[in-house]
Structures are given as C-alpha cells and as structure tokens.
Amino acid sequence: MSQDLYSARVLELAADIPLVGLLASPDGRSHRVSRLCGSEIEVDVCLQDGQVSAAGIEPKACALGQASASILMRHIVGASPQEIRAARDAFKAMLKEHGPAPTGRFWELRYLEAVRDYAPRHTSALLAFDAAVEAVDRALAHQTAAGEI
C-alpha cells in the first residue's frame, strides 16, 4: 500500500475524533455499515435554525474511516445540511471521478485523496459523510413532521 494512504496527518486525524458519543435525543440518527470491511459509523445530529447545533458519533472503523469521521466531526456543528451534502458529493467525486478535493469547511478531506487509488476503500472512507447526510435528512423530516419547519 502507498505510504500516502496512511500519511502522518491521516493517522493523527484517525486518533483524534471529536464529539464521540451519541446524543440523548437527536433529531436524526443514521447507522451505516461497510459490507466490505465491516466498518460501522453511527451519527446523531440536532438541527436549529437550518444548521447542525449538536452532533455525536460512534465510530468503529478502519483508520481511513476514522480520519474521515474526525474531519466530519471537527466541522459539523454550524454546518448546514446543504454544506454536508456538498462535502459528501465532492468527496465522492474526488475518490471516484478524480475530481478536485473538497473546499470550504471540510477542506481537510484532501488528506484522503490517496484513497482514490484503492477503490475497495472508498466505501469506508465515505461512511461518516454518508451517515451524516442520512442523519440530517432524517432530522429535516422529523422537523417537518413536527411542524418546526
């Protein structure tokens, strides 16, 4: 495997994930599993005024999945659902279509650019962002059903 795949920064991120632990009463929760490697990520979010106001995560993933989760959780509070979806889509395009690295709030995803050469690792790297998108979609649906939007 390429040394860049597990760069010092990727390993630092993987070892330091903020906001670990699930929320007592989230607006939206998602549990995602990579069937290929068995990585699991559970993400909770609360939304207020169109932004994530609180978040929590339970990561049981490989170093790449944990690094991605770390980047997500460093910047998720204050992000809009649109920003999270755009970051996930840009991250996916970077890996699968050789697109440019994401910019803005989630710019650190560029540290995972080497994953693009390892297609079987794409799912685990994307897991946290896929879970976050699903969690915010569920939170929005919850708020709509409750008449909060």
Secondary structure layout:
Layout: H1 8-14, E1 28-33, E2 40-48, E3 51-60, H2 63-75, H3 81-96, H4 122-145
Antiparallel strand pairs: 1-2, 2-3
Helix pairs in contact: 1-2, 2-4, 3-4
Describe what you observe in this structure.
The chain has helices at 8-14, 63-75, 81-96, 122-145, and strands at 28-33, 40-48, 51-60. The chain has a single domain (3-142), classed as Sufe protein. Chain: A (Alpha-Beta Complex), CATH 3.90.1010.10. Helices cover 40% and strands 17% of the residues. It has four helices and three strands; from the N terminus they run H-E-E-E-H-H-H. A three-stranded antiparallel β-sheet has the order 1-2-3. It is globular and about 45 Å long. The protein has 149 residues and is an alpha+beta fold. Strand 1 (28-33) and strand 2 (40-48) form a beta hairpin. The mean pLDDT is 94.
